[in-house]
Design goal:
Helix 1 (about 5-30) crosses helix 2 (about 70-110) and helix 4 (about 130-140) packs antiparallel against helix 5. The protein is mainly α and about 280 residues long. It has helices at about 5-30, 70-110, 110-125, 130-140, 145-155, 155-170, 175-180, 185-195, 200-220, 235-240, 250-275.
Length: about 280
């Protein structure tokens, strides 16, 4: 990866995003919206001041302020830990649940495989965003409801990945030998099937972090999820649309942040796919 400049750019973006989200997320978890939670930010993201509403970017407010006079950069930095947490929760849940169903389908075969795969196809036949949107409304459009909706919708592609890998490895010698040695079910499932099926899934998951963030931001853009005054990149971009073109920075910078984060995960995931599939040898 070190010889690929685009991969390095993606890695820098991802590390910076996840590193900041971890530190800021811990502060927010411990202190909520108090002074210590915003200690690392340029300004208090909840400093409501109409006098400086829609203040253009300058040395004091690097990305300008919104209509309420709140610093856009500080609000963006405050919002990022939620995007990181939601993407991590959704992708890991999808890997675990999709992996469980996919491995069972691939290993058991026949009727079990048919039922699980038709159930998977039913989910895949519907556009993910539309299904997430419908479930989010059903769950009262709360943040917890959005996360649950994403988890419910996100697992099918991982089930297909794990099923395909299980079909490849289930008749291999080491798998057959483990059954003859009376290995416990949990060890057999995780050590022999799950772990040996995970490589292509890891590469796709790196790409998928960006997909989750983009979907969550789209929902926030539509007004589903967090309630004001808690900031979210998608809702910030949506609120800024009404100020175009005079207050262009209000919508442009949050939208640009989403784009950069997603591109970072795409660049890293694409290179990981190349390495894992042995298309490129360093």
């Amino acid at each position: 990866m070190t010889k690929d400049k685009t991969a390095i750019v993606g890695l820098v973006i991802v590390v910076a995003f996840l590193g900041w989200s971890t530190v800021q997320g811990i502060l927010e978890m411990l202190f909520g919206t108090s002074g210590l939670a915003v200690a690392l930010l340029p300004h208090n993201p909840f400093n409501y001041n109409l006098v400086i509403g829609l203040h253009a970017p300058d040395r004091t407010y690097l990305l300008g302020t919104n209509a309420n006079g709140e610093d856009i950069l500080s609000r963006m930095l405050y919002a990022m830990p939620r995007d990181a947490f939601i993407s991590l929760a959704v992708v890991l849940s999808a890997i675990l649940f999709g992996g469980l169903l996919g491995i069972i389908a691939g290993y058991r075969g026949k009727y079990t495989d048919e039922v699980i795969m038709r159930f998977t196809d039913a989910f895949l036949s519907l556009p993910a965003l539309i299904l997430v949107l419908a479930l989010s409304v059903l769950f009262n459009e709360t943040l917890d409801g959005v996360i649950l909706a994403l988890i419910i919708v996100w697992w099918p592609i991982y089930a297909r990945f794990f099923r395909a890998q299980t079909l490849k490895i289930k008749n291999m010698d080491y798998v057959q030998a483990s059954k003859l040695n009376n290995v416990s079910f949990l060890k057999f499932f995780f050590s022999y099937l799950f772990v040996n099926s995970i490589d292509p899934v890891i590469a796709y998951a790196a790409l998928d972090f960006g997909n989750v963030i983009l979907t969550y931001s789209t929902l926030a853009f539509l007004g589903i999820g967090l309630e004001p005054p808690i900031p979210e990149l998608g809702s910030m971009a949506a609120n800024g649309v009404g100020t175009l073109p005079t207050g262009w920075w209000y919508a442009v910078f949050p939208g640009l942040a989403i784009l950069i984060i997603v591109i970072g995960f795409v660049l890293v995931g694409d290179r990981m796919q190349d390495i894992i599939s042995n298309r490129i040898n360093y």
